[in-house]
Every structure is written in structure tokens, then in C-alpha cells.
Design goal:
By secondary structure, this protein is mostly helical. It contains 10 helices and no strands. The protein has a domain of 157 residues.
Length: 353
């Protein structure tokens, strides 16, 4: 019996391995071809509750209900989102333009510290003194080279991808419209193409995976949005430059396990302490404390126990996702981890001991 149990677990792990390989091959070689339709399907799932209300409760025809749903989405994105996104992009461009000034300021600060440290280290052994001095002399140039090249490369790549992104958006909206009109028949058609045993298993785990994946994404978006809003308000109050852009970046970084908002706020506060801008430094520390308390209070309520993934596993999934899938691995990695966890909860895959 023990042998049979082990054999079954090995087979399940083999299936998991094959599943991950297929996901990798699909995303890297085929996924790009279906990306607009994947996005369209996600939008369809988001809009479907509204579609059902319009079609079933108010007896509005499917075509008109679909048009109303998509028009509502476009209205929200254009009139509520574009203003905020446009301001973030504007501040991002201004930040990139002023970046050389900030890099020079950081270099000068490190040089001043290096000079002061050099005077204090005259009593230390020569070997230790040289190590410390080299650290302070090289740090500012490394930071400058990293930030400068990173911002430049990101800007160029973004500009190159704009036309393709516009086409993806258009195709996604059209596919969402068509899926809303005929969602049940499309799903039934896909299930009919699968062997019966697989279609039955798919029905068993579909709801669990759907709840876990969309629950994870929804929870992260809620927390990121709230953290970004808190940072923006706080930075605006203390009159920090590029408040909206920096708040947006902190909201994204705060979603990373281990790093959090302190990855940006603490070095920024330390820099202001060194440059004797004590008001700004205290303000940044207060913002960090508010963000920390908010996340500790909100995260258990929003995420709940539906995910059940250790922060280390999340960090590993993000890193591996970035290495395999590029920038989109930031999302794909954790989502795959959530799917695996959901499959384990549904007893499709063996659970970790």
C-alpha cells in the first residue's frame, strides 16, 4: 500500500512538472499570440456579473448588455484612470529629466561622508581604512550608472512597445465583447474538446482556482492602491517632489515580500537626515509607520487565509518568474504559485508535508 501511495504521489509530481513545462512553453512561444484573448477573457469574467444583471434582471438584449458593460469599463478607464495615469507619466518624465541632478547630489553626499570618515579613520590599520574608503568612493558611481542606464533602457523599450500595446487593447476589447455575448457556449465548446475525465476534473478545480487566483490579484491590487494613495497623500503634505509618481512606485514595491515600502522610504529618510533636512526625514518616517500599520491591519482581512503562501515562497515565485518570463514574471510567478496551491487544496496535486 505504501508503494502504491508513493507511486501515486510520484505520478502527481510528474504531472505537475509537465504542467509547469507546458505553461512555460505556452507563455514563451504561444502565449503572445493569444494575449489579447486572455486579457479579453479576464475582462469578460470581471464584467460578467454586471452583464448577467442587465440581461437577466432588466431583460436587456445580450448585444446591448455587452456594449453597456464595455462602455462602462472604457468610461472608468478613460475618465477616471487616464487623468491619474497621465499625471504619473508626467511626473515620471520629470523625474527622469532631473535624475542626473539627484545622482550628483547623492555622489556629493557620499564624497562628503568619505572625507569625514577619512579624517576619523586615521587611527585604523591601513588595510581596513582602504576598504572603507573604496566603498564610499565607489557606491555613488555605481548607483548613478545603475539608475541612469535603467531609466534610459526602460524608456526606450516602453516607446517601442506602444503601437503593439494599442493593438492588443483593441483586440482585447473586441474579444471581451464577443465572449460576453456567448460565454456559456464558448466554455461548453472548450470542455467538449477535452477527454471526459479531464473535463470532470476541470469542473472540480475550476471554481477553486478561479477564486484563489482572482482573490489573490484582487487583494494585491486593493492593498497596492491603498498604500500608493497613503504615500501620495503623505508625500503631498510634506511637499515631496513627484508625490504621485513616487507613491505609485512605493505601492508596487510594497507588494514585494521582504522589501516593502521601507526599501524606498528608509534610504530616502536617511539621506535627508544626512543633508540635515530633518522635517522631510521625520515626515518620511511617519509615512512609513502609517503604511506599516495599515498593511498589518489590512492584509489579514483582505487576503484572509485563502492564499496560504509563505512570503519566502512568494519571493521565490517572483524571482523565478522574472528570470523565466521577464517583467511579466512579476505577476505570472505568484499566480502560478497560487494555482499550484489551489490544486493542492483540491487534492489534484500532493500537498507538501
Amino acid at each position: 500500500m505504501s508503494f502504491l501511495d508513493n507511486k501515486e504521489k510520484i505520478l502527481k509530481l510528474l504531472k505537475l512538472f509537465i504542467f509547469l513545462i507546458l505553461v512555460y512553453l505556452f507563455i514563451n512561444y504561444i502565449g503572445g499570440l493569444f494575449l489579447p484573448f486572455i486579457i479579453g477573457y479576464i475582462l469578460c469574467i470581471i464584467l460578467y456579473p454586471l452583464f448577467k444583471i442587465l440581461n437577466n434582471k432588466y431583460k436587456i438584449p445580450k448585444v446591448l448588455s455587452s456594449i453597456i458593460c464595455i462602455s462602462t469599463l472604457i468610461f472608468l478607464v478613460v475618465f477616471l484612470g487616464v487623468g491619474i495615469i497621465g499625471q504619473i507619466v508626467k511626473e515620471g518624465k520629470e523625474f527622469a529629466k532631473d535624475l542626473p541632478y539627484y545622482i550628483d547630489s547623492i555622489k556629493n553626499t557620499f564624497n562628503d561622508i568619505s572625507t569625514k570618515v577619512e579624517n576619523l579613520m586615521s587611527v585604523l590599520p591601513d588595510s581596513l581604512e582602504n576598504i572603507l574608503l573604496n566603498f564610499f568612493e565607489n557606491s555613488s558611481s555605481l548607483i548613478g550608472e545603475f539608475l541612469g542606464s535603467g531609466v534610459k533602457d526602460t524608456s526606450i523599450n516602453f516607446i517601442k512597445k506602444v503601437p503593439n500595446a494599442l493593438m492588443i487593447v483593441i483586440i482585447s476589447i473586441i474579444s471581451c465583447y464577443l465572449m460576453l455575448i456567448d460565454k456559456e457556449n464558448i466554455q461548453a465548446f472548450i470542455l467538449r474538446q477535452l477527454p471526459k475525465r479531464y473535463s470532470e476534473k476541470l469542473n472540480i478545480v475550476k471554481s477553486g482556482i478561479g477564486d484563489a487566483v482572482f482573490g489573490y490579484i484582487r487583494a494585491q491590487l486593493i492593498i497596492m492602491s491603498l498604500i500608493a494613495t497613503i504615500c501620495f497623500i503623505g508625500l503631498a503634505i510634506i511637499k515631496a517632489p513627484y508625490a504621485l509618481f513616487v507613491g505609485f512606485i512605493i505601492g508596487i514595491v510594497d507588494a514585494l515580500p521582504v522589501f516593502g515600502s521601507g526599501f524606498i522610504l528608509w534610504p530616502w529618510a536617511l539621506y535627508n537626515l544626512i543633508t540635515k533636512d530633518y522635517g522631510m526625514a521625520i515626515g518620511l518616517i511617519i509615512i512609513y509607520v502609517v503604511v506599516l500599520v495599515t498593511r498589518q491591519f489590512l492584509e489579514p482581512k483582505v487576503l484572509g487565509k485563502q492564499i496560504g503562501i509563505h512570503p519566502l515562497a512568494t519571493l521565490m515565485s517572483i524571482y523565478i518568474g522574472l528570470q523565466i518570463f521577464g517583467i511579466f514574471g512579476f505577476i505570472i510567478g505568484p499566480v502560478l504559485m497560487v494555482i499550484i496551491k489551489a490544486l493542492q487544496n483540491a487534492n489534484v496535486l500532493p500537498k507538501w508535508r
